[in-house]
Structures are given as structure tokens and as C-alpha cells.
Amino acid sequence: MASVKNILADIHQPKNGLLPISIFERNRFNDANSLTKIPQKMEKIVFSTVNCLVRFFLKRDAASAFDNSFLGASFIREENKAKSLAKKVTGLDDTSIIAAMHLANYEDCLKSVTEYRVLDEKEITSDIIKNIKVLFNRIMSFMARYGSKIIYNHTLEGGYTDAVDTGTIPFVTNESILLLSFSENEPSIEETLELLIYYVMSKHSIYPTLKEVKYVSFYNPITNTFFKCNAPLISGTAVSLIEEKVLKYNENHYNVENGKNVEEYLSIKDAIEYLGIDEEKFKKIVKSKQLILDTDHGEERVSVANLNEYLQNKRMTNRLVWILSLTSILAIVILVVILLTVK
Fold first, then answer.
1. How far apart are CA 121 and CA 93, in angstroms?
2. Do 320 and 302 belong to one domain?
3. From CA 16, how far away is CA 192, in angstroms rounded?
4. For the chain, how many structural domains are there in total?
5. Partner of 266 for a Cys bridge, out of 92, 270, 317, 338, CB 3.0 to 4.6 A?
6. Which residues fall within 8 angstroms of residue 57, CB to CB, at 6 or more apart?
7. Contact at 8 Å (CB) between 266 and 293?
8. Is 133 helix (H, G, I), strand (E, B) or coil?
9. Spatial contact of 247 and 227, defined as CB atoms under 8 Å apart
10. Reduced to 3 states, what is the DSSP secondary structure of residue 18?
């Protein structure tokens, strides 16, 4: 399995990158808070902790906010310890932050179990905790300003290929794909490349919300700066290169099982979003047998083909209703004209 991050190092880019940061608009914010210097060996865990806390506060779901932490903990058989730590994360108090840091530390196990080291409580200084609070508050303030609707870890069904068959977009806010950048410098060409690939995959995905993305962006809470690029400014040549050479959409990119293309399925939640309806409406459609739920893999899901068939039938029905309405109106008009002529 390969994710976007897994393939970045293998892609050759020009000096300024396929998506140059120079074409991004910049907006720097000011607040009354300041950051102290974060020790280099603590940077990764601080940034991971902030990212996890943001996700937790957006959805109040520890399982999804700390999903990588739980997975890493399972590699060293500390799932129960991770679950106990997650129960301590309830807010932005010191106890919650310290527990979140220990959880974020498990992410090192995903790269290599041998690189994992137990976090020393002495390393969690008051300055570290203060920095986490400042970074967290800046991100939440930014999102409150720019994102009335925020989705994190948005999947990319329809956009996956044999080259990239897993991974999610970190944040989608309104009409933008958003990545967080933790650096005292501008986003690197590796970061802009990652953003470009997510943008291309979103255009090939099955989700209308992603197809309507109008700009791509970064927010850096360290410099408190917002970087925004309108989609029309993205080079068509760069997009084509990602489509053809990296993601290889020109080839058959469906997963293959026993020589046959595997049909794509969506969870109930994703199917509801795909159709743009509420859960009650979805249940009525299923009850009417217009959508067939698949339960062969342990959870209810719907095939994309079935969803598209429903949408096509709905469009045809709406068109027929429109034609019948128009016909009725014309018939009334003709009748009125005949009656007036007779008079």
C-alpha cells in the first residue's frame, strides 16, 4: 500500500517545485501570544500533539483523532495503555496535553519500532505545554475564521490508483484543501507537491465537495501565516504530469482481484455525503429498494455503481416530470387560446 507521503521522495521536481510557493497569496496574522524555542528533539512530538488535539476538538472522537497513535501502540502491545491515556484527553488543560503527548509519541512506532523511545516526563516543560496551547489556539482561531465546515482525513475514493491506493486529505475547509505547515520557513517544495497531488486526486474523486475545490492552502501556526493559491493558477502541465506520470490515470487504476476489476464501495456515511442528502432520506431510498446495501464485508456499504444508477434514474425522473409539467402548461395555454378565439 502506498500513500501520498510515501511517493514524494521519488518524484523529480524543478528547483522551485511543480507548485511554487511564490504563486500563493500570503496573509500574516498578529496575536498577543509568543512562542519560545522548541528543542529540536521535541519538535516532531509537539507538532504531532497539536495536530491530534485539533482533530480531537473538531470531532470529539479520540479513536479517529489519535488513530495513528493507537496503531503505533498496537505494534508494541500497549493498546490498553493508549486507551487509558485517551480517556485523560478532555480539554486543553495540562493533564490532557501531557496525555496527548504520550499518545502522539506512539506514532514513531509506525516508522520503526526500534526508533520508539518512552517520553521522559522531565522533557515536558511548562514552556512546551505553553507552546502547544499557543499553536492549538492559533489553528482553531484560523479555522473559525476561514472554515465554517471542516472535515479532516477526507478519503479519496475514485481518486486512488495502483500508484497511490491509500491516504486521506488532512483538512478540507469549505472550498479549500488545507495542510498545516509547522516551520519557521515557508512551506517546502515537498509540502507543495503533497498539496498538488491531493488536489489532482480530489478532481478524480467521487465527491462533489472535492470536485468543487477552488483553492489549495497552507496554514502555519508557528509564523501565524496563511498561504492560499487559487486553483486556476496551478500549472496545467504540472497537473498533467501528476495525472499521467505519478498517479497514472491513463492506465487502468482499479484494484485488481483475480483478474477482475473490484467494484468500489462507500460506507453509509460517505454514501449520504455523495448523494447530498440527510440520513432519514437515505433510509427511505434504501427501504424503497432503489439502493441495495452490501453486508458481505462486515459493515453496511453501497456500491458506487448503484449510487450512480440511482442518481441517473433520479435525473431522468426529474426530466420526465419537467416535460409533463411543460406539456400540461402548453395544453392549458392552447385551451385558453381556443376558448378566446371561439368568443
1. 16
2. yes
3. 10
4. 3
5. 270
6. 136, 140
7. no
8. helix
9. no
10. coil
Quick check: helix, strand or coil at residue 147? coil
Of 259, 274, 304, the residue at which a domain comes to its end is: 259
* Same-domain check for residues 31 and 136: yes
Are residues 132 and 151 located together in one domain of the fold?
A: no
All three cell numbers of 279: 440520513
- pLDDT tens by residue, 329-341: 887 878 877 877 7
Q: What is the pTM of this model?
A: 0.71
d(Cα 91, Cα 56) in Å, to the nearest integer? 9
Residue 7, domain extent: 1-18+147-259
CB 4 within 8 A of CB 198: yes
Cell reading at 86: 485517551
Which H helix or E strand runs over 217? strand 215-220
Contacts by residues 327-334 (CB-CB < 8 Å, ≥ 24 positions apart): none
Asked whether 196 and 238 are in contact (CB, 8 A), the reply is yes
Question: Cell numbers 406539456 label which residue?
Answer: 327
Paired strand residues for 229: 216
Q: Is 208 in contact with 274 (CB distance < 8 Å)?
A: yes
Q: Label the pairing between strands 176-180 and 215-220.
A: parallel
| Pairwise CA distance, residues 50 & 132, whole Å | 6
- Mark which of 202, 229, 259 sits at the end of a domain: 259
Cell of 194: 503533497
Both 105 and 246 in one domain: the answer is no
Strands 260-261 and 150-154: unpaired
Q: Is the dihedral of CA 163, 165, 166, 168 positive or negative?
A: positive
Contact between residue 265 and residue 304 where contact means Cβ atoms under 8 Å apart: yes
Between the CA of residue 166 and those of 151, 216, 271, what are the distances in Å? 17, 20, 19
Paired with 28 in beta bridges are 225
Q: Residues 152, 153, 157, 163: is their CA dihedral positive or negative?
A: positive
Are 177 and 138 a contacting pair, CB within 8 Å?
no
